[in-house]
């Protein structure tokens, strides 16, 4: 009886772990919990708390008892040598419907031009966290989706790379070959199965390449795969980001991770250094009861883009490329977010 119970028990625990990994607090269940939590929870986060909040904004939506919404933000990180260290390159709303245990991933493009909650003027949505921290990001996304945002989690690029390596790599399936020939074309790499030199416009450049079919990715390769956008676009990148999140879930639920305390310890160490959330200890009881029942094998996915039915169009404002909602209001996007589980 005990042998039959343990695999089910472990799977439930790790279903919980995968979701809480995304919001940075699953370490409560392990011996390193106190140290990790003290670093991960950041209730006072605000990159620029002196900014005034905008006037005349509509009332934010009330909490839906049947929905749990967690805003996931990916940033380059404070140690990145480039500009825009805290701009949100990845904006994903993880939504859970409690009554039927469903999960949805909703991606918002970083070029969406909106009224930030912490700014008098409109800007691209990827400025929300950089300017006003968790509160500004949550309220801005809540305003445009008309969904109450319960928690926010911010993770940097280094966390993704290290997590994939600790898990032993991930696998992604491609219907067509993938190639990035511009974004890192002038950087130097060691030639391997993912990198080769190609002549482009009379100049030899490095090209990042993945084959059609199953591809095994280490941390560094995964990072290039989810960051690439020059040879494709930001919308394709959002699809790849969702694909990698699901691949991480699959790998973390595998037996070689479940039974490996060293990997668990290393994952906790990564969380403590590279992930911050405004979810507190008092939220854990609700999360336990919700996540332990989730259907992690049927995740609904949605992105908003400029394709037919994508509900966005592009234009230029002050010579800057931006995205706006069809009809110049967010009603259709709000309806799509509300009905994602229908």
Characteristic key phrases:
single chain, alpha+beta, 35% helix, 3-stranded antiparallel sheet, 10 helices, 25% strand, globular, 342 residues, Aminopeptidase
Q: Number of DSSP helices?
A: 10
Number of strands: 15
Distance between the termini: 39 Å
CATH superfamily: LCP protein
Please indicate the percent range of residues in DSSP E strands (runs of 2 or more).
Answer: 15-25%
Determine the structural class based on helices, strands and strand pairing.
alpha+beta
- Average pLDDT confidence is 80
Q: What is the rounded Rg?
A: 20 Å
Instruction: List low-pLDDT spans.
Output: 1-9, 12-17, 22-37
Portion of residues within helices: 25-40%
Give a short account of the largest sheet. Answer: 6 strands, mixed
Q: How would you characterize the overall build of this protein?
A:
The chain has a six-stranded mixed β-sheet with strand order 12-6-1-2-3-13, sandwiched between helices. A three-stranded antiparallel β-sheet has the order 8-10-9, with no helix packed on it. It is of the alpha+beta class and 342 residues long. The protein contains ten helices and 15 strands. It has one domain (2-163, 238-338): LCP protein (Aminopeptidase, 3-Layer(aba) Sandwich). The model is unreliable at 1-9, 12-17 and 22-37 (pLDDT under 50). The two termini are 39 Å apart. It is globular. A hairpin with a 6-residue loop joins β4 and β5 (122-124).
